[in-house]
UniProtKB/TrEMBL annotation:
UniProtKB keywords: Bacterial flagellum, Cell projection, Cilium, Flagellum
Residue runs in coiled coils: none
Protein name: Flagellar hook-basal body protein
Biological classification of the source: Bacteria, Bacillati, Bacillota, Bacilli, Bacillales
Main localisation: other
GO cellular component, one term: bacterial-type flagellum basal body
Domain Flagellar hook protein FlgE/F/G-like D1 span(s) in chain numbering: 118-179
Keyword Mitochondrion recorded: no
Originating organism: Lysinibacillus antri
């Protein structure tokens, strides 16, 4: 009976966490460059139950032999194993702002370990040192003319330097070159991750490597092709309709576990109040 409490409780906790992930995805359905989170629920390893007993051996000394009869397996519930981001390309839409950039994936090599394609990111200077990465190209110029993102992090060039411009009258070519009056002033920094599942997802659409190491540049990377589009942004890749369906499914699963928990509770109440009186 008590094992049933733990099994049902683990299911409720897993569904609650899944609901939180889905609602966060839905809240960012209109956030540029947002990558939806996907959760994986797994069951704990089953436990094999057996009944132990004693068998009397009819001998002069009256020996007893222990016995073990298998009853069957017992499921110990489920847990939320991991949460991974979905790096599928979002919809590209026009903004008419020269400081908005959209990254458009081309060919991406398949990682042998994960079996998934790699992806590319804009390079940002992280305030704690090293680099951060994002797909959100909603940039602007700060008071000193540096290209920054919405949180004020500096956008880096391919050489790892901050990009300073006099005004918003500049052009970005499809291959990442920033041009002012026809002359190249910098190449926008684009990094490539062969296995983005190992990246650490931060707030505000940022990613970092777990050990703080910098990702390699995407320019010249074997098998990697991409394009940049000025005055466009990549939208969120959240599927609102599917997310709503998943949210209702998760809620119903939580509700079903809750009813089972209430049934267990009523059974325990009878065991204490009625059977205990006998």
């Amino acid at each position: 009976m008590f094992k049933g409490f733990y099994t049902v409780a683990s299911g409720m906790i897993a569904q609650q966490r899944k609901t939180e992930i889905i609602t966060n995805n839905m809240a960012n359905a209109n956030t540029p460059g947002f990558k939806a989170d996907q959760s994986t629920i797994r069951s704990f390893p089953d436990m094999l139950l057996s009944a132990r007993g004693m068998t009397n051996i009819p001998t002069e000394n009256g020996l007893n032999q222990s016995t073990s009869d298998q009853i069957g397996s017992l499921n110990a519930g489920v847990y939320l194993q991991e949460t991974l981001a979905n790096y599928m390309q979002g919809t590209i839409y026009e903004t008419n702002l020269s400081t908005d950039f959209a990254l458009i994936n081309g060919a991406m090599p398949i990682d042998e370990e994960s079996g998934k394609p790699g992806t590319i990111f804009f390079r940002l200077e992280h305030p704690e040192g090293g680099e951060a990465y994002t797909r959100n190209g909603n940039f602007t110029l700060d008071g000193q003319g540096y290209l920054v993102n919405g949180q004020g992090l500096y956008v880096l060039s391919n050489e790892g330097e901050r990009i300073q411009l006099q005004n918003e009258d500049f052009q970005l070519s499809q291959d990442g070159n920033i041009l002012v009056n026809g002359g190249q002033v910098a190449t926008l920094g684009i990094s490539f991750s062969a296995n983005p599942d190992v990246l650490q997802k931060l707030d505000n659409g940022l990613f970092r490597t777990v050990d703080g190491a910098e990702l390699p540049t995407a320019f010249g990377e074997d098998g990697v092709t991409f394009a940049l589009q000025q005055s466009y942004l990549e939208g969120s890749n959240v599927d609102s309709a599917q997310s709503m369906t998943d949210l209702l499914t998760s809620y119903r699963a939580f509700e079903a576990n809750q009813k089972v928990l209430q049934a267990y509770d009523r059974s325990m109440e009878k065991a204490v109040n009625e059977i205990g009186k006998v």
